[in-house]
Every structure is written in structure tokens, then in C-alpha cells.
Design brief:
With 129 residues, the chain is mainly beta. It contains one helix and nine strands.
Length: 129
């Protein structure tokens, strides 16, 4: 009776915690990023990969909210200085977001999307000073 209970509990945990999805080996990258904001016409926000895992550029995107324009999701590879989608972002890589005329009230998040499962995780965020 105890063995059946343990087996059922393990099966339920596997199902509800998504252990059986086949993507156990696909972990989110561990990396540190910095943001450098410059007001101007247009405002610009430079994102720099400071340290950690290298990341495929095509798996990154940013989300912008609170800007006067350019709110929404933006493909990382469309940013100024970004490498092509198949290239890797490594420590020291920098890109610049300058698609908004005013970022003074904006919030920007840098996100990674798993190529296998389509799940996303936030890697870094910035809020206007």
C-alpha cells in the first residue's frame, strides 16, 4: 500500500512539476548585464553582457513599457550593434536600443526564450532613473 502511494505521488509530481517535458537539459543561461542610459534625441539604452554564459542572439528579446514610443517586444538582433541571430553574445558584447524618443519613464527587460520549449525567462531589467 505504501509503495503504491509513493509511486502515485512521484507520478503526480513529475506531471505537475513538468519534469517529463524532455527539456531538463535546456537550462536558462546565467549571465550578468548592465544598462547605460543616455537621454537625447532619441534616447538610447546600451545593454552590455558583462559576464557569464554565452547566449545565442536569436534567443534574446527585450520588452519595453512606459516609453513614449516603441512599447512592446523587440527582437534582440534588430538592435544597433547586435550580431546576427545565429551568433553568440559573449562577455563584452554591447547593443544599443534607440527606437524610442523618450525612455525617461520606461522599463526594459532582457529576456531569453528557450529554443526547445518556447518558455521565456527574464535575465535582466532596467527602470528609468
Amino acid at each position: 500500500m505504501v509503495a503504491i502511494t509513493v509511486l502515485l505521488a512521484a507520478t503526480a509530481a513529475t506531471f505537475f512539476l513538468d519534469f517529463g517535458s524532455g527539456n531538463l537539459g535546456q537550462n536558462a543561461p546565467q549571465a550578468a548585464f548592465t544598462f547605460d542610459y543616455e537621454s537625447g534625441s532619441p534616447d538610447s539604452l546600451t545593454i552590455e553582457h558583462r559576464s557569464g554564459d554565452s547566449i545565442q542572439a536569436g534567443n534574446l528579446y527585450i520588452t519595453v513599457s512606459g516609453a513614449s514610443t516603441a512599447n512592446g517586444q523587440h527582437d534582440f538582433t534588430s538592435l544597433s550593434g547586435a550580431p546576427a541571430a545565429g551568433s553568440k553574445i559573449t562577455a563584452g558584447s554591447r547593443v544599443t536600443f534607440s527606437k524610442a524618443s523618450d525612455l525617461s519613464d520606461a522599463a526594459v527587460t532582457l529576456n531569453w526564450k528557450s529554443p526547445d520549449s518556447g518558455k521565456s525567462i527574464q535575465l535582466a531589467s532596467w527602470e528609468a532613473p
